[in-house]
Amino acid sequence: GDRPSPVFFVSGSTVAADQPLLVGELAAVVHQEAAHAGELVLLARHHLDRQLQRDAGMPHIYYGLLVGLAEAPNRRLRMTELAMRAKITRSRLSHAIARLERNGWVRREDCPDDKRGQFAVLTDPGLEMLKGAAPGHVRAVRNAVFDRLTPEQQKSLGEIMQIIAEGLQPNEAG
User: Fold this and answer.
1) Could you give the CA distance from residue 122 to residue 78 in angstroms, rounded to a whole number?
2) What are phi and psi of 171, to 5 degrees?
3) What are phi and psi of 162, to 5 degrees?
4) What's the predicted TM-score (pTM) here?
């Protein structure tokens, strides 16, 4: 009826909600939303990184590597598999594993059926350190994300993240 339609702000101009967006306006909205999502991811990563540095003396990426090993059969993974799961280069993984080795949390083992291959293995002290760090990290994630959302919003967030993650997965063939 008689009510004015809502107005959206797009790149310094206004667009009535009942008018179709022009290609340039649509591109601006998509870019703006992507920028907000990227900023959110960076804020969350920095927040969790600070918490883990403060409480466990390690960056978030190292924590993720230890979790990956803890969840693997016999607490061991091929280095190439661990790098793929962590979405990091083998070079970055090698540097991280070297630091985790110095702390006594991980050890490398040669792969018996591939002379160039190596396994990363979570040690008992590494598992104990992870068990000690996990409760604080879980609290930080809950505080930063889930405690701010209603159960319905949490469910929606999970569904949305699943859809986005599926769309970002590389094709097996490509």
Assistant:
1) 12
2) -70, 145
3) -65, -45
4) 0.71
